[in-house]
Amino acid sequence: MEKLTLDIKGMTCDHCKAAVTGALEELNGVASVEVKLDKGTADVTYDEAKVSVDQMKETVEDQGYDVN
């Protein structure tokens, strides 16, 4: 398993946190997600053989947030 921290712009509330967490957890290969609103980050543990970083970024962007 790999670990990655995504920098996410635009998250301001618990709804934002739930939307990002839920969307990432639905991806095949994502084992866990911890969103930190105060830092604007999402720590993701994932299987790189099943899901790519680009897929995760696109999933978060589809929820309406910017990812660096």
UniProtKB/TrEMBL annotation:
Residues 2-68 form the HMA domain. It comes from the Bacteria. Keywords: Chaperone, Copper, Cytoplasm, Metal-binding. Pfam families: HMA. This is Copper chaperone CopZ. The keyword Metal-binding applies. Gene3D superfamilies: 3.30.70.100. The keyword Nucleotidyltransferase does not apply. One of its GO terms (molecular function) is copper ion binding. The gene is copZ. GO terms for cellular component: cytoplasm. PANTHER family: P-TYPE CATION-TRANSPORTING ATPASE (PTHR46594). It is found in: Cytoplasm.
